[in-house]
Design a protein that fits this description.
Blueprint lengths: L2 E2 L10 E2 L16 H8 L20 H23 L3 E10 L11 H9 L13 H8 L5 E11 L4 H5 L14 H11 L18 E2 L2 E5 L23 E3 L7 E2 L6 E2 L2 E5 L12 H10 L42 H6 L6 E2 L4 E5 L9 E3 L7 E8 L14 E8 L25 E4 L51 E8 L2 E7 L34 E2 L7 E5 L4 E5 L15 E9 L24 H4 L5 E6 L3 H12 L2
Parallel strand pairs: 1-4, 3-4, 3-6, 5-9, 6-10, 11-13
Antiparallel strand pairs: 2-7, 7-10, 8-9, 12-18, 13-14, 14-15, 15-16, 17-18, 19-23, 20-21, 20-22, 22-23
């Protein structure tokens, strides 16, 4: 047992869990900061990436930005400290408000099991502990080791700590700071078991993870609690990373507390049941740098990717938080828990269940940089066991890293879409084409999955969703089709078509002959020429990708298999002519190109040492147009 009992009485910026689906709120309490700001007639210009707008409800934009950027920095530090170790040491403190001195609270030993235990407990953790969820989701890349400090009384009431803002302010830390002060006094005692050093694994002087569990009922459940407290007078579960100047510091200045998570020890707005893992996990994962994936821009209660990710809906498909749903594949990739398999050719593919297998497919070529598709196999098992009847199969995610967040919903229900550039950073392409997640109509349903008879095709026929690129409102058909879905047991089979043939075995290239490549005529002209380092000896012709990467080698007189696996749009095949020690390359004679300065986008990053190559365009403009057209419609 990892419960530390303190027998000493004393007088203690952010992401917010979404409200419970069945919560009721009085109309006088604006549910979201956007509603509050509209009532106060204030502007909200800054768009937070990790910080939930709730924490900006009563703050100006500059303060909101400082809080958000601080949370990002601290989250990155925490994530960096555990990546190489695979373990997160967590300090859990239990805070009892002054007006709850007679309230029967959850035993500290039960909270310890809630965080650390293996196996299942039908009452405390029917689907496993916090540690079990993280271990399963990370494919054993991360475990937590939580030390629970026994219940500690404060001389402030819950209403005082809530401050009329559900505790969503920088002053809330004053309610638990006395606990840290007391722990600090024990740290100074060399013979005492408590030591801050245990919770600072990267030894940067900042406690890696602090969780405050309190004796109230979470404001996110709405309604009134047994004492008549409304949501604004209770604490809304959240995570915060205060500015460095406002961080709690130990008496000798050796240690400080940066990001922290706050959650109720209880489930619901009354009763004696322990909280569910969904809420705590959602907030804890924020402190590891994951953003919220629900839509915070609307006055609804969801949007985003619905119940398809715990970072969007921690209550899960069953609405109780015990089955919070899986972590989405994009988030797993951000945490380093998942390495996607890149698809580069037309073929058939087998996909194993994402809940138990470290497998997801990625299609990023020929999308623009930062835009790609992820394909996973989500089955009705483990934390998704309460998925909708008939649910299960392939999920296809459309990612656009150029977007900041999931705060701009888009869909065919909007005028001017998709050219208006509105879409989520992490979007789930719903197979039924109804875009109900974006409209906050539901949190998902069975026909959002790609199953037998469904397919994802180019958007030339006006079909939505589709495989088109839409970054920045620039719609480009990449010509890819994903189809032929069928289940084989728990596995999913599907095909990808539309990639050009990459082998030219019957057409070896001779000196100064052209080679056929996958060319997107709309994007290639800026990247046909650049100075780059010598990549391989005896290599005559390279495939030059639109993002500046060089991949593939063609030798004169031999077959020319060319593909672009490094992302970006393929520009063409170029001839290498050695030109040492000459930084000034005249490209004015290359047809279809502008001045050298305009066409050396990657020049500084790709130039290396004294030995360089002059790359000459081998395509005359009419031939380039022909090849681009053929490849585009392949």
């Amino acid at each position: 047992m990892k419960v530390l009992v303190l027998s000493l009485l004393y007088s203690l910026a952010v992401a917010v869990v979404p409200p419970h689906p069945n919560a009721e709120f009085d109309s006088s309490f604006p549910l979201y900061s956007h509603d509050s700001r509209r009532q106060l007639r204030t502007e909200h210009q800054y768009e937070a990436q990790l910080l939930h707008p709730e924490l900006c409800r009563f703050e100006d934009d500059r303060t909101c930005q400082v809080l958000d950027e601080t949370l990002q920095r601290q989250a990155r530090r925490t994530l960096g400290s555990i990546k190489s170790r695979g373990r997160l040491k967590v300090l859990v403190v239990l805070l009892r408000f002054a007006n709850h001195d007679t309230r029967e609270v959850i035993e500290a030993s039960d909270i310890d099991k809630f965080f650390n235990a293996n196996g299942l407990d039908s009452t405390l953790y029917p689907t496993g502990s916090i540690n079990t969820y993280l271990k399963v989701s990370s494919f054993k890349s991360l475990t937590i080791d939580a030390d629970v400090i026994s219940w500690f009384p404060t001389n402030k009431t819950e209403q005082e700590c809530a401050g009329g803002t559900s505790g969503l302010n920088q002053d809330f830390k004053s309610c638990f700071a006395p606990i840290l002060d007391t722990l600090d006094s024990f740290h100074a005692d060399l013979e005492h078991v408590f030591n801050w050093n245990k919770y600072d694994e990267d030894k940067n002087g900042v406690v890696d993870s602090l969780i405050v569990m309190h004796s109230g009922y979470g404001a996110e459940y709405g309604d009134t609690d047994p004492l008549g407290a409304a949501p604004q007078d209770r604490i809304w579960s959240h995570s915060m990373g205060p500015p460095e100047k406002n961080m709690w510091n130990s008496i000798h200045g050796e240690y400080s507390v940066g990001t922290y998570t706050v959650a109720s020890a209880f489930h619901g707005h009354n009763g004696k049941n322990i909280t569910k893992i969904g809420v705590v996990l959602h907030e804890l994962l924020h402190t590891l740098s994951l953003p919220h994936l629900y839509d915070v821009s609307r006055s609804g209660r969801g949007g985003g990717v619905g119940a398809f990710s715990i970072m969007s809906n921690p209550w899960g498909q069953g609405d109780d938080g015990s089955f919070p749903g899986s972590l989405d594949p994009w988030s797993k990739i951000q945490l380093g828990w998942l390495t996607p398999t890149r698809i580069t050719k037309s073929d058939s593919y087998l996909l194993k269940p994402s809940a138990t297998e470290n497998q997801v497919y990625l299609i990023d070529d020929p999308y623009p940089r930062g835009e790609y598709l992820l394909i996973e196999n989500r089955q009705k098992t483990l934390y998704d066991a309460k998925m909708w009847n008939g649910a299960g199969g392939a999920l296809i995610w459309h990612i656009d890293e150029a977007k900041n967040s999931n705060s701009e919903a888009g869909g065919p229900h909007q005028e001017g879409w998709p050219e208006n550039g509105k879409h989520y950073k992490v979007a789930l392409l719903q197979a039924d084409g109804l875009y109900q997640l974006e409209q906050d109509i539901n949190d998902g349903q069975w026909d959002d999955f790609f199953t037998f008879g469904k397919k994802l095709v180019p958007g030339s026929a006006g079909v939505h969703p589709n495989t088109d690129s839409y970054q920045g409102g620039n719609i480009i058909s990449i010509g890819i089709t994903i189809a032929d879905f069928k289940e084989e047991g728990k596995n999913v089979m599907f095909t990808v078509s539309g990639y050009p043939q990459i082998g030219i075995s019957d057409n070896p290239i001779s000196d100064f002959q052209k080679c056929s490549v996958n060319v997107n005529i709309g994007q290639c002209s800026s990247f046909l020429t650049a100075d780059i380092p010598l990549i391989e000896e005896d290599c005559d012709c390279y495939n030059f990708c639109g993002n500046g990467a060089i991949q593939g080698c063609c030798k004169f007189g031999e077959p020319c298999p060319i593909t672009c696996e490094s992302g970006g749009l393929v520009a063409g095949c170029t001839l290498a002519v050695e030109k040492p020690n000459d930084p000034d390359v005249d490209l004015d004679d290359v047809p279809g190109l502008g001045t050298p300065a305009e066409n050396r986008t990657h020049d500084d990053s790709l130039r290396s040492g004294a030995q360089s190559l002059r790359w000459r365009n081998l395509f005359a403009a009419p031939v380039l147009l022909l090849l681009g057209s053929l490849a585009f419609h392949a």
